[in-house]
Design a protein that fits this description.
This protein is an all-alpha fold and 591 residues long. It is built from 26 helices and 4 strands. Strand 2 and strand 3 form a beta hairpin.
Length: 591
């Protein structure tokens, strides 16, 4: 521990991020249609054709009598040289007949396609945070990496982590350029990265649009916008070239005519998975948006840290980082709207709303701001998120909409974990082979969190921490049954009831903040909604939730507003809260 204290902020971040990356590389997750589609495209490209064998995955498209992977080609294009290198040393030549052999081959590609981008992304997060909130780069990077959906997807051969890395890298370049205004090189490079992000995952076009607006509000907007546009078009060229080669048109995407069922049923391809709207995206459904937040796999349930980070946006605004606050708020909002309009909001097998993964690094700056202001609260929420994400990663993150967090606990109780490198070495049972992952994850957290200064009045943060954790527990117990991920079981009454519950939570926390710890009792009656007899009756739950909100509002009006010194009773003068200094925005990274 003494050696850790001697590390500089950059060295601390490097050690923590490398350890977290090693933990992800240690995991060999099970396969699935999405990974199979990307893997099939890599092998077909190596064979000199864009066509794939449709028997390998349901994530395929049928265009003009030929089958293609219904995925953006970027991940396959970037990992193709790595695949060739592995084949050159004999690591990708084994048969696909063995399920274990298939997992191993996908894992080998994932080292370059997911783990390495994951490490690079966290390094970018630490770098950007150090510019705005010095000293908090390492803990913020570990919180974002281990406490969000980035952790399980870093162990899977999906395109989300790579696209998130490219999109956020473009933002970091533009952020740095605003600190040190220069020529058109930085905007052009950012446009290039934003374009490549679209090649990897099509919805990253939303990030490209937001970043264009970010460029427009800076100095010399016209020449910088032109440079950004040139870079963006250049980055899109691989996609246009692939489309021309595969489909005969640069503007035909692989999502065209996606299959709705595995090929072979009835002997005829069943197409039309993305037929509605614009490639499956129609008018946003408010119930779907709510489900993405509070269902059994919603962000508030599986990774509450991502929601807590949003409370740092006003802090960025107040310190003069208004453009950055708008970017970090607009990207999540646009993705939530787009995701709520997609016909399959959770995208099939997933530990959560996977289409929202590219927005997670943009929460890093507001997360760092609120971490500095409320370290005990944020670390407490972060540890809950890290625990859930680690559980999902090690027990198998790819679950359908009919599964919930309980599924991961059940698997862990039965000793069912995914394969790891220790399993290859013969470690048994599997839960023993998973222990090194937990150890590496713990080391990364210790290394990163030890540099967070403990406030002298840390006991004053226990009250808001208890309130926030109580609110999270209430959502976990109540929301999934009233607003499930499965759209077939969603109701308008349940959605309204959840909104009323969220309103009650907001009132209770506000009352506790202004009137003392006993005011948290305002939240206690809401747990009645967790009763099974109410959860199966959305209409009754709606009436109960309305009554609870009305009661909370009445209590709020009647309770007196205590003076700041009456909210706590410190035992010693050292425990008196010290005022937080405003966040600074240095022009150079901390040494």
């Amino acid at each position: 521990m003494e050696a850790l204290r001697l590390l500089s902020p950059r060295a601390t971040a490097a050690v923590a991020i490398a350890t977290l990356g090693l933990a992800c590389a240690f995991v060999v997750s099970d396969g699935g249609p999405n990974q199979a589609a990307h893997f099939a495209l890599v092998r077909s490209l190596a064979a000199g054709t864009p066509e794939i064998d449709p028997r390998e995955t349901i994530d395929a498209a049928y265009v003009d009598g030929r089958f293609y992977a219904a995925k953006a080609p970027g991940l396959a294009l970037i990992t193709l040289p790595w695949y060739g290198a592995l084949r050159g040393v004999g690591l990708q030549g084994q048969s696909l007949a063995s399920e274990a052999g298939y997992r191993h081959r996908v894992w080998e590609l994932g080292l370059l396609g997911s783990v390495l981008p994951f490490v690079a992304l966290l390094a970018l997060v630490a770098l950007a945070v150090e510019w705005l909130v010095p000293g908090y780069g390492a803990p913020t990077a570990v919180l974002v990496g281990a406490g969000t959906l980035l952790l399980p997807f870093a162990t899977l051969f999906f395109d989300h982590v790579l696209s998130a890395t490219l999109g956020f890298a473009a933002f970091v370049l533009l952020l740095r350029a605003r600190e040190r205004p220069g020529g058109a090189l930085a905007p052009a490079a950012a446009g290039l990265l934003a374009g490549l992000a679209v090649v990897v995952e099509f919805p990253l076009g939303l990030v490209a649009v937001v970043l264009a607006a970010y460029v427009a509000v800076g100095e010399r907007p016209i020449p910088r916008l032109l440079a950004y546009g040139v870079g963006l078009v250049t980055g899109l060229l691989p996609l246009l070239a692939f489309n021309t080669w595969a489909f005969g048109s640069p503007f035909t995407l692989s999502y065209t005519n996606a299959l709705t069922a595995p090929f072979g049923i009835g002997g005829t391809p069943s197409v039309g998975a993305n037929a509605s709207g614009l490639y499956g995206v129609g008018f946003p459904d408010p119930r779907a948006a709510l489900s993405l937040l509070v269902s059994e796999k919603g962000l508030m349930v599986v990774t509450p840290l991502a929601i807590a980070a949003l409370f740092g946006l006003p802090m960025l605004w107040r310190i003069g980082r208004r453009a950055e606050a708008v970017v970090c708020g607009a990207v999540p909002l646009l993705f939530l709207v787009y995701n709520a309009g997609y016909y399959l909001p959770y995208g099939g097998q997933s530990p959560g709303p996977r289409f929202l993964v590219p927005v997670l690094p943009f929460l890093a700056l507001p997360l760092a701001a609120i971490l500095r202001a409320r370290p005990v609260v944020v670390i407490g929420i972060g540890l809950v998120s890290i625990g859930v994400m680690a559980l999902a990663t090690i027990t198998g993150p790819l679950t359908g909409v009919e599964y919930s967090v309980d599924t991961w606990f059940d698997r862990l109780g039965r000793g069912e974990t995914v394969e790891t490198l220790a399993s290859w070495a013969g470690a048994e049972p599997r839960w023993v082979a998973a222990l090194p992952f937990a150890l590496l994850l713990g080391i990364a957290c210790i290394v990163a969190f030890r540099c967070i200064p403990v406030p002298t009045a840390w006991r004053q943060e226990l009250l808001p921490l208890a309130g926030v954790l109580g609110a999270w527990l209430l959502i976990v117990l109540v929301a999934p049954d009233l607003q499930p991920a499965d759209e077939a079981h969603q109701t308008d009454e349940g959605a309204i009831a959840i909104l009323l519950v969220l309103g009650t939570i907001a009132v209770a926390l506000e009352v506790a903040q202004r009137s003392g710890r006993l005011a948290l009792l305002v939240l206690a009656p809401a747990f009645v909604l967790a009763l099974p007899t109410l959860q199966i009756r959305p209409g009754v739950s709606l009436l109960v939730a309305l009554t609870l909100l009305a009661a909370a509002v009445v209590v709020r009006r009647r309770l007196p507003v205590l003076q700041p010194d009456a909210l706590t009773e410190p035992e010693t003068p050292a425990e008196t809260p010290e005022p937080l200094e405003p966040l600074e925005a240095p022009v150079a990274p901390a040494q």
